[in-house]
């Protein structure tokens, strides 16, 4: 593996969101670390320092170690320990001890049967947007298609009225810092958007308590752990977690899929000619796009990962775009291959913290690829892609495209 980028490790801070707005979306820096210092101590002058792991085997080791690491002191770089502790033990992604029980409460809302029930709405959303916009000289795929698909699904699951869907996407994009590099969102704006989300769902929760249905909020209201119902705070925190995973990550994976297929026309042609490749293409899109930029754990006691000693209290982070492109785990890792198998990427994590919405995300991407390959003959970018300015999500905020429909097939 050769890397052209030269990085000043003394000045590098992977928590700097500007790194990921570069033309290579930060991959040059991550590849450099993977080759030269795969266990990098990221010293910070402001905020806690952390270990950054960019090799696949080290990422697996962190994910599977349930004894020596905790997620309850923060689960992504840039998060403060105080914020994580406020949700620890209540919100699934920052819960260890009650994780399995909390997961059992939430699982009924995300069963394959529930997911399949949404298929018709998914296809209507994607197909309608493609047909409506395909004849335009250019349109933003993120705002028009990639953002609408997961938003419609998560809002259906939560029972959000259609009239409020646009408001939901606006708030979530602001709250989680999903902004282009020339549109920086202030901490105050993020805080306000988060407050709006919690207030909205608090009202919806109160309304649902008097009128239970089969939506996710109703499932959480009915749920109990050791005979005790979840509190309003626990329900609202987990709704927030579902919004993040269900909306933000799938949006970036969907937009990234289009970029990858445009930039790899042979793979686009291959997929159109052989739809049986769609299941493996979904996994390759997930490997390639890795929307959750990093995951973090805190060492509970002195331990070792490979040859490196990790001291109690130190933070370790796994960088998904890098580990998913590790040549030791994925032959020809820097090639987008819709037929790649096996493909044991870490995009959804591993072990007990495996993403609870993984099946739903896979289903959404399958529908997207089926609708694209079935309806669209040609795709092209019509302008520069805008990368996110974020150290949490690794994705794009604007993808201008022109699509030509396959009239022969319809």
Strand content: 5-15%
Side-by-side strand order of the widest sheet: 1-2-10-7-3
What is the share of helical residues? Answer: 40-55%
User: In sequence order, what are the helices and strands, one letter per element?
Assistant: HEEHEHHHHEHHHHHEEHHHEEEEHHEEEE
| Weakly predicted, low-confidence segments | none
The count of helical stretches stands at 16
Specify the overall morphology: globular
Total number of strands? 14
Structural class: alpha+beta
Features of this protein?
single chain, 410 residues, 12% strand, globular, Cyt_P450, heme, metal-binding, Cyt_P450_CS
Please describe what this structure looks like.
- By secondary structure, this protein is α+β, with helices and mostly antiparallel strands.
- Helices cover 46% and strands 12% of the residues.
- It contains 16 helices and 14 strands.
- The chain has helices spanning 27-36, 56-64, 81-87, 99-106, 112-117, 119-133, 141-146, 148-158, 165-175, 187-209, 216-222, 232-263, 265-273, 278-289, 320-323, 358-375; strands at residues 39-42, 50-53, 69-70, 139-140, 224-225, 228-229, 294-299, 303-305, 308-310, 315-319, 376-381, 386-387, 396-398, 400-405.
- This is Cytochrome P450.
- Belongs to the cytochrome P450 family.
- Keywords: Heme, Iron, Metal-binding, Monooxygenase, Oxidoreductase.
Quick structural summary:
With 410 residues, this protein is α+β, with helices and mostly antiparallel strands.
Topology:
Elements: H1 27-36, E1 39-42, E2 50-53, H2 56-64, E3 69-70, H3 81-87, H4 99-106, H5 112-117, H6 119-133, E4 139-140, H7 141-146, H8 148-158, H9 165-175, H10 187-209, H11 216-222, E5 224-225, E6 228-229, H12 232-263, H13 265-273, H14 278-289, E7 294-299, E8 303-305, E9 308-310, E10 315-319, H15 320-323, H16 358-375, E11 376-381, E12 386-387, E13 396-398, E14 400-405
Helix pairs in contact: 6-8, 6-16, 8-12, 9-10, 10-12, 12-14, 12-16, 14-16
